[in-house]
Amino acid sequence: MGTSILEEIRRARTDQIARMLVETALPVSQIADSLGFEDVQHFARYFRAGKLMSPLAYRRKYATRVDSGVAQNGDSFSQSGVVAQDPFA
């Protein structure tokens, strides 16, 4: 059996949250608000159900802050100061 449309929507939304956590330095509360979540605790539970870790733990695992404008691997980063390790590959 395939996945339902609701499961696909949830997966896509969780992936969008994950990208924002990795690719921006926005606070979790601002990401939650921008995606229509009125309660940060609900946002965190929603994300944890899909990725099996909290939003902050996910950010710590997959995003690296750098100060020099170039990551250790030579990749440049955006103005947010975050370099993605591409967990979506």
Automatic annotation (TrEMBL):
Question: Which Pfam families does this chain map to?
Answer: HTH_18 (PF12833)
Could you tell me which residue ranges the HTH araC/xylS-type domain spans?
A: 1-61
- Keywords in alphabetical order: DNA-binding, Transcription, Transcription regulation
Q: GO molecular-function annotation terms?
A: DNA-binding transcription factor activity; sequence-specific DNA binding
Name of the protein in question: HTH araC/xylS-type domain-containing protein
